[in-house]
Amino acid sequence: MAAAATQVRSVQGDTVDLICWRYYGRTAGITEQVLEANPGLADLGAELPIGTLVTLPAQPATPTQATRLQLWD
User: Fold this and answer.
1) In the predicted model, what is the mean pLDDT of residues 4-20?
2) In angstroms, how far is the first alpha carbon of the chain from the final one?
3) pLDDT: which is higher, 50 or 28
4) How many CB atoms lie within 10 A of CB 33?
5) Which candidate, 8, 6, 4, places its Cα nearest to that of 52?
6) Measured CA distances, 46 to 9, 14, 42, 43, 62 (Å)
7) Higher pLDDT, 12 or 72
8) Helical pair 16-24 and 30-37, crossing angle rounded to 10 deg
9) Model confidence over 33-72: pLDDT tens digits?
């Protein structure tokens, strides 16, 4: 049985990244999953209105290892 998603309400100054950091302790790859779980959330702007209900996936998938980009030789 899969764990249920958690719902939180935004407080003053919250962004999706900040909520992810508070709940998961990291944001790499998680922010996109939270946005997918909350259609229309990105349309609210960078700073969420106070009291916005945000659904957080119970166990987000671990992001795949990114390819390293070397800027200089």
Assistant:
1) 93
2) 50
3) 50
4) 16
5) 8
6) 15, 9, 7, 9, 24
7) 12
8) 110
9) 999 999 999 999 999 999 999 999 986 655 555 556 677 7
**Domain regions of the chain by residue span:** 7-56
Q: What are phi and psi of 53, to 5 degrees?
A: -80, 125
User: Which pair of tokens denotes residue 45?
Assistant: 């702007």
Are 60 and 32 contacting, i.e. CB atoms less than 8 angstroms apart?
no
Q: Is the pLDDT of residue 21 over 60?
A: yes
CA distance 35 to 16: 8
User: What pTM was computed for the model?
Assistant: 0.72
Nearest residue to 27 (alpha-carbon basis) of 39, 38, 15 = 15
Q: Is residue 60 within 8 Å of 20, Cβ to Cβ?
A: no
Separation between Cα atoms, residue 50 and residue 14, nearest integer Å? 8
